[in-house]
Amino acid sequence: MRLQRLVAGVSALAAGVTLAACQRQRSGEGTMAAVNNMPGMSGMPGMAAPGADSGGVPVDRTDAARLGVTFARAAVRPVRAGVRAVGILNYAEPRRVYVSVRVSGWVEKLYADYVGKPVAAGEPLLALYAPELVSAQEEYLLARRLQDDTLAASARRRLVLWDIPADQIDSLEARGTVERTLLLRAPRSGQIVEKDVIEGQAVQAGMNLFQIADPSVLWVDLAIFEQDAAAVRVGTPAALRVDAVPGRTFRGRVSFIYPELDPKTRTLTARVEVENPRLELRPGMYAAAELVAAGARAVTVPLEAVLPTGTRDLVFVNRGDGRFVPREVTVGRRTDSLVEIVAGLRPGDEVVASATFLLDSESNLAAAIQGIMLQMGMGLNMGGMQMPMKEGARRP
User: Is there a contact between 119 and 325 (Cβ–Cβ < 8 Å)?
Assistant: First the structure.
């Protein structure tokens, strides 16, 4: 019904102004009376009776409620900015370890024979035959038989420096005979994530044979957009969700923020540590995280109260007499439901909290109609004001 009245009003306005231009009416009062008497124009915003204050948009609360327009007041509230980001789960670097050999030899027996195999600390990984290890064992046993403590201590220290476990050295003493192969054991519990050796392979001193990683604690490197970087700090709590474990929320905290911005993606990397005791999370999975930082108190309004126009942000403010005028504001941090107003509003100001586009459209329509009237009324007697005429022209 309101739209039909607006359309009828615009049509009547165009017809009335055209007719007035053709007849060149001299009476400005007659012209304005004709415009005000056009069908549908009397109830339109901006077309108030002569002498009435036409600033702002008049709002009838009953009609506004039917149209879904709500109101709110600017107030000082804590602004807890939530930052959403995505990242990829990975093994925590401090929980990774390489297993290498310190002497050259041959792999006689491989126990950790596939990638992904879980191992416990001290569990055998491979049996290594190395001529230097055999010679060192013989030297150690000979020194003990000769009861040369200095030579025995030197031979034992050499075995220790070659990473031979103490229990194997004690077994050598008790047995009194040389072992052809010695066991290379896992230095920590975890999973075999890299394996660069096969059974029977010759290995050189210093080669990395395995990488073992503990998956009980994982890292998530989150990509934080540049505009959200100020809201993220070390210690900020994070709630993570992964598609592979629906309905579960994993908790963690930001443990480190990289010092540099990625020049390609324009994002900052924030690292979150997350506990994984049941091993439900796996490296390589995508994780969606929500970071909630404690914010300071500031003047805020509902998020929908701010109408972005592309070049500025507007709110419709009650000027005190039931009319709402657009006012430019400067916005700051945003939450899911609130937006910080840095400048333009004071606590207690009443604003339109939803459906602001309705008032914006109505305000723009009223301004457009007034502009059409001014443009099409050139040369008319508007309200008793004589419009200038070209030199030599004659009034009819």
Answer: no
State the Cα angle at 56 between 52 and 59, rounded to 5°. 90
Q: Which residues, including other chains, have CB under 8 Å from residue 49's CB and lie 6 or more apart? A: 36
Give CA separation, 370 vs 58, 261, 374, in Å. 17, 51, 6
pTM for this one?
Answer: 0.59
Q: Measured between alpha carbons, how far is 167 from 169 in angstroms, rounded to an integer? A: 5
Burial class (CB in 10 A: 0-12, 13-18, 19+), 160: exposed
Judge whether 221 and 267 are in contact, CB under 8 Å: no
Residue with the two structure tokens 């009861």: 147
What residue has token string 């126009």? 309
> Was domain 83-92+215-292 assigned CATH 2.40.30.170?
yes
In CATH, 70-78+296-354 is 2.40.420.20: yes
Where along the chain do the CATH 2.40.30.170 domains lie? 83-92+215-292
- pLDDT, one tens digit per residue, over 155-191 is 888 888 888 888 888 888 888 888 888 889 999 999 9
